[in-house]
Specification:
Helix 3 runs parallel beside helix 11, helix 7 crosses helix 14 and helix 13 packs across helix 14. With 479 residues, this protein is mostly helical. 54% of the residues are buried. Helices cover 76% and strands 0% of the residues.
């Protein structure tokens, strides 16, 4: 639809616009390292809502929900939509509890070290960093694939432009800059998503042709109670719910909200509003099957929309894709920066604040190199996410049980997490394999740690209870 030079021009123009806005805001609002990684108690309900919604709606929504619907049907669509909503709702009681126990905290890893000790802290830190790495790879892969559908632009070129632009304003301005650009990006995302939905509806001729085609070719996809659809829906629900609890970007926004009430309202509305967008995107996958729009399910949405799209839509899709990617990628980059800064202070307790800030910036730039290398390969976006989801699922119960139980200890947390990882990976499909036992792998990863914890309580003599009130004094602000 576009020449490579035209696509690169618009890609650079839109990227530069977001970058200039983020840097300009950061120059005006430059603050301390505390502001850079936490922006503590600075954001109202609307800002919290918009930044959560923007960081939830990454470019993956144009690929993964439609692709999941092509093999999981309506059950997968419903599960995906509910899964996208659920982490926001579960984070409300967890966030309230964390703000209560560690009001001066910055990251989930601070809680892990103080509550469980170094082994569980190290294991979960690796899982969190791996998840953030995969999330970044998946986002950059998604926008690179989108641009190749519109013009013959190499994957690496798109990855370089988008990653470079996002790094510049996020590394410079930190969390405040990320939240500010999220607001701008939502102004672009919401109307363009609505336009995309309308064009897709027109392209398939309404619901009639899709329903007729599905009844003829794959009637099981229309049945939400079909066993395959139910398994797919439950898999996505579990995967997205448990993974969202480990995204450091969510924990940053727990602390950046002005107060607990603001945090609750922002997370509640953010969860409720993201659900219909995921649901509608998933329906494009059903339309793809019903209308026989193509053979590559990973680009189901674009197989429907692009053949009959007006010329201006290609430019609009670049703007939409960039806004989606940069709003979620800057969240991941800011999350990694906060982890680096907090843990660098632990390794270098006497380091000055400017030194810690430089470490957080340059290590994130170093991380960008393998991200761009992976994105240039064009791997399956959905598979990358599912692998990271499984790792987080195994750690979920062992990590968060300690927020409420005084008897839970670090040794049990480590053993139960490792047991969940082994059990889940045993049934997890290899790349290219049919996901026959995907739900079973997630169930094992999530439930085996629970069983191990309960068994340890029965077999091991009672240990001294942990004083949760002591967590308050375990961390301090940077300034």
């Amino acid at each position: 639809m576009l020449s490579s030079s035209a696509a690169l021009f618009w890609l650079l123009a839109f990227s530069a616009g977001f970058t200039v806005a983020g840097v300009a805001y950061a120059r005006r609002e430059r603050g301390s390292l505390e502001d850079y990684i936490a922006a503590r108690n600075s954001q109202g309900a609307v800002a919290t809502l918009l930044t959560l919604l923007a960081s939830s709606l990454g470019a993956w929504i144009l690929f993964s929900p439609p692709q999941a619907a092509t093999w999981g049907g309506l059950g997968a669509v419903i599960g995906y939509a509910l899964g996208a909503m659920s982490p926001r709702l579960v984070m409300i009681p967890l966030g309230r509890r964390m703000r209560e126990l560690m009001p001066g905290g910055h990251t989930l890893t601070e809680f892990l070290l103080a509550r469980y000790g170094r082994p569980m802290y190290s294991l979960t830190l690796l899982i969190m960093l791996f998840y953030l790495f995969i999330a970044l790879c998946a986002e950059i892969t998604a926008i690179a694939k989108l641009v190749t559908l519109l013009a013959p632009v190499p994957l690496w070129a798109t990855a370089l432009v988008v990653m470079g632009a996002t790094l510049i304003y996020t590394a410079y301005g930190g969390l405040r800059s990320s939240i500010f650009t999220d607001k701008i990006q939502m102004i672009i995302i919401l109307p363009l998503l609505l336009v995309l939905m309308v064009l897709g509806w027109k392209a398939v001729g309404g619901a009639g042709p899709t329903l007729a085609g599905l009844r003829d070719k794959a009637p099981q996809l229309l049945d939400p109670f079909n066993i395959g659809g139910l398994k797919a829906g439950l898999t996505f629900f579990m995967a997205i719910l448990l993974t969202g609890l480990f995204h450091q970007g969510n924990w940053q926004r727990i602390y950046s909200a002005r107060d607990t009430r603001t945090m609750r309202n922002g997370f509640l509305l953010g969860g409720l509003l993201v659900m219909p967008f995921i649901f509608v995107m998933g329906l494009f996958g059903l339309a793809f099957v019903g209308t026989a729009a193509g053979t590559d399910s990973s680009v189901a949405l674009f197989s429907i929309v692009l053949p009959q799209a007006p010329d201006w839509l290609a430019v609009a899709l670049i703007a939409l894709g960039l806004a989606l990617v940069m709003s979620s990628a800057d969240t991941a980059i800011s999350a990694v920066s906060s982890l680096v800064a907090v843990d660098a202070r632990r390794l270098m307790p006497r380091a000055a604040t400017p030194v810690l800030m430089r470490w957080s910036r340059w290590l994130v730039f170093a991380l960008a190199i393998p991200v761009m290398v992976v994105a240039a390969q064009g791997y399956d976006v959905l598979y990358l996410f599912l692998l990271a989801d499984l790792l987080c699922s195994a750690a979920a119960f062992p990590v968060f049980f300690g927020l409420f139980s005084r008897r839970h200890d670090g040794r049990t947390a480590v053993i139960s997490t490792l047991a969940g990882l082994v059990a889940g990976l045993w049934l997890f499909p290899a790349p290219g394999e049919k996901p026959v036992f995907l739900l079973e792998s997630f169930l094992l990863a999530a439930l085996v740690p629970l069983a191990v914890t309960l068994l340890a309580r029965r077999l091991i003599a009672a240990r001294a209870e942990f004083d949760l009130s002591g967590l308050r004094g375990s961390v301090s602000r940077f300034d």
